[in-house]
Amino acid sequence: MKMSENTKITVTPDYPSYLVENFRTYLNYLLTHTIKLTRRSAYFTKKDLLSLHSQMKGEWREVPNHAAQADYPILHLFYELSRVLSFIKVRRTSSTAAAIIQTDRIEDFMKLTAAEQYLSLLEAFWMEADWDELQGEKRGKAFFAIHSLFEELERFPANEVIQLKHHPEILDSVREFGSFLHTLVTFDFGKSG
Question: CA separation (Å) from 89 to 115, 130, 139?
Fold first, then answer.
């Protein structure tokens, strides 16, 4: 698809991805539930993760019931973004961690248009989010793998579906990203129409 400079893109809650709609669902959950955090990492509990995951729209991989927050890439991203945007503040004591929900900030965000919300989330992700935290088990590797990944991808025409099983050199680079690649797809980068 060729786009001219006059082409307009309209951001809606479900286009270019379900990011905005899912983030709104996530925020509504924060506003309507008491959020408990795990003591050690100050992440969501399994109960909240399962409940939130079941409400997310889009193509999400199945997650086992015993999974931790980092195993839910979309929710892990939303948690990081909500901390960056000060929708959640974490209060720790020696024995607990609590999520303090910033209702006024969330309500102000909800008043924005879908396009403004998308751009706010993209800016928070791109400029302020802790990418190492979002990578989970692959912490610190995406930055080293991205150059070689893009070099390999340049060999293929735009919009061509690449079967990774036939291109181990690309598959190795993709694996280095951990769930970070999933995060990019959440923002609709690297996904075809």
Answer: 25, 15, 23
**CA–CA distance, 166 with 147 (Å, rounded to integer):** 20
Residue 54 tokens read as: 């079941």
Q: C-alpha distances in angstroms, 82 versus 46, 127, 193?
A: 18, 14, 28
The answer to whether residue 140 scores a pLDDT higher than 70 is no
Identify whether the C-beta of residue 136 lies closer than 8 Å to the C-beta of residue 76. yes
- Residue 49, pLDDT > 80, answer yes
User: DSSP assignment, residue 44?
Assistant: B
**Residue 101 vs residue 129, higher pLDDT:** 101
Distance, CA of 174 to CA of 125 (rounded, Å): 20
Model confidence pLDDT, tens digit, residues 88-116: 999 988 888 989 999 999 999 999 999 89
Angle (nearest 5°) at CA 27 between 22 and 32: 125
What tokens were used for 12?
């809606």
**Residues paired with 90 in a beta bridge:** 99
pTM for the model: 0.77
Report the C-alpha gap between 95 and 118 in whole angstroms.
36
DSSP 43: P
